[in-house]
Amino acid sequence: MRKLYIILKYLFISLWSIFVVAPFLWALSTSFKDFNSVTGGATYIPWVDFEPSLEGWKVLLRSPAQGGVNIVEPYFNSIAVTCSASFISIFLGTLAAYALSRFTFKAGFIKNSDITFFFISQRIMPPIVLSIPFFIMLGKLGLLDSMLGLIMVYVVLLMPIAVWIMVDFFNKVPREIDETALIDGCNPYQAFYKVVLPNSIPGLIVAGMFCMIFGWTDFFFAFILTFTEVQLLPVAIVALNSSITPWWSLSASALVSVAPLIVVAFIVERYLSKGNLSGALK
Amino acid sequence: MDLLAKELVYQPGSEFHLDSMSFGMKKGEIYTLLGRTLSGKTTLLKTIAGLIQPDSGRVLFEGKDLNSTPVWKRNIAMVYQQFINYPHLNVYDNVAFPLRQRAISGNELRLRVSDAIERVGLKDFESRRIQELSGGQQQRVALARSLAKQAEILLLDEPLVNLDYKLREQLREEFSKIFTSEYSSDSILIYSSTDPMEAMQLGGETIVLDEGRILQQGPASEIFENPATTRVAEITNDPAMNLLSGKIADSKVIINSKMSFDIPIHFRNLASGQYTFGIRASDIALDEKGYPFNVELAEISGSETFLHAKNEDVSLVGQLDLVKNFNVGENVNLHLDSQKLYAFGLDKNLASSPFKELARG
């Protein structure tokens, strides 16, 4: 029985791995094809099924004048906007979440849980509802088509995620830890950054990952709020599309665009299991 | 008195957690706050620590009003019942944490941390992570941290309550040793507990709390021998003292139509009339010549059996020094040692005890 369970387990894991990895392999294979290899029927293995070509990748580095889409600048724009917006969202969101977790706020019928819901309710609205107000506001501020404008918009969009995740996480950190830190000589700010925050690293990482993913993959606001000065990666990738869909360069750009998220996931994965709260309060 | 509480009141909801509480404590003494759950022990400790601001009343230490001193500036250490430590630090850094907060470093830091760790028996565990320790060891780390701080007031909030029975027994002995023989005479130690045994073992002064009020204060043995009221008698005994309504008439103690005793010598000054009589569970024994009772429940605990039995309208719990399975409904004869009887007046105050004749009545 146990043997059967193990076999089924590994079978499931293998199938799941294929399900997850296959699209990447397909994209990798396609990125090295040219027009003829793509349209000439299903081929998978380079040098065997088709002659590999670097055309798909070269397009990403060529300037538009040379018939390419230079994604280097949009790439770094995306990194700058996503990292800045995520950092600000996590910084502000963590402070807000700690306050909501530890202090009681009351204004009429509004309590802590209502305030937390207010934050996350910002994400319930369809993005299209926010597009016109954002467009008008950024226009008035002279921040349309600018990195700063995009960062501000993304902070508004990402902070609710950070607050929502971190409130839940702080609620699981026993208050007695804060109290012990106060008794041991920390003022409330020291208690927060010397004791509570180091024990909340898994929560910070989860919130950070969500912010990065949402920020990095957003197309809608990057498309609406920018024109020529600032272009983010998703918009640049879409610009690749023409009358003939260039699957080879789209595949290459798709791989390039997911690479940072994969790298970040690998870096932070080991921290997710570290710094847990077992031992804080047995 | 070095630590004074004056008319402390704290009422966060409809019920009082502290109800006009006043007391005085001296340095070099051990004080045990003894009371049931929700009696106000933790609230009082947190008020002394500064974690709770009372609605009214003051806490004074050496004449200085502590109400205006924030928690982090008070020279106080506290050990919680939940084994609170800093999981991101190892044992050494946990113990060193309060000292580093006070900018103590170098040799003094090392000496104080090593000394505290050694005193709680964790010498070889300095570099271990908190998660790698057992519950008892984690609580020792918390204690070492509070000892290293050398605070003027050390608060221990039921530090043994979450440990298993054996470990509790072991640590209770070790704690008593640390506190009674090694703890600084410049400090006040306040230990809260629901367990009367702990109060007795620690010695010192016991303060009995109930519903945010102090019911009795005095040496542990005095409170155990002469509980001031029926409520104190219940709180300071585990299982609670059996309280039986009855009367004294014709030189007899009459509990009901089937149960009466010759009046014990320490009741000789009591006037005839209605009383509440108290007898400890440990002063009840199986005896063929005793009174007939009907078994309602029998609980075996270690080498003892707690027998819940009923005779007409009289229900009591006996603590028998044997392990025996009793069937529910079984008839047993129980002897109640009349020489160990307590008498409480109609006002619930102690009228006479086997240790003290109060000549009331």
Largest sheet of chain A: none
Beta-strand content estimate of chain A? under 5%
Name the assembly state: heterodimer
CATH topology of the domain at 79-239 in chain A: MetI-like fold
N to C succession of SSEs of chain B: EEEHEEEHHHEHEHEEHHEEEEEEEEEEE
CATH architecture call of the domain at 79-239 in chain A: Orthogonal Bundle
Identify low-pLDDT runs of chain A.
275-279
Query: What's the CATH C level of the domain at 79-239 in chain A?
Result: Mainly Alpha
In the predicted model, the low-confidence regions of chain B spanning at least 5 consecutive residues are none
- Provide the gyration radius of chain A in Å: 24 Å
Characterise the protein shown here.
The complex is a heterodimer of chains A (282) and B (361). The radius of gyration of chain A is 24 Å and the shape is globular. With 282 residues, chain A is mostly helical. Chain A has a domain of 161 residues: MetI-like fold (Orthogonal Bundle), CATH 1.10.3720. About 2% of the residues of chain A have low confidence. In chain A, helix 4 packs across helix 10 and helix 5 runs antiparallel to helix 7. Chain A is built from 13 helices and no strands. Chain B has 361 residues and is of the alpha+beta class. Chain B folds into two domains: 226 residues, Rossmann fold (3-Layer(aba) Sandwich); 123 residues, Nucleic acid-binding proteins (OB fold (Dihydrolipoamide Acetyltransferase, E2P)), CATH 2.40.50. Chain B contains eight helices and 21 strands. In chain B, strands 13-12-11-14-19-20-21 form a seven-stranded antiparallel sheet. In chain B, helix 3 crosses helix 4. Chain B is globular. The chains are: A mainly alpha (282), B alpha+beta (361). At the A-B interface, helix 8 of A face strand 6, helix 2 and helix 4 of B.
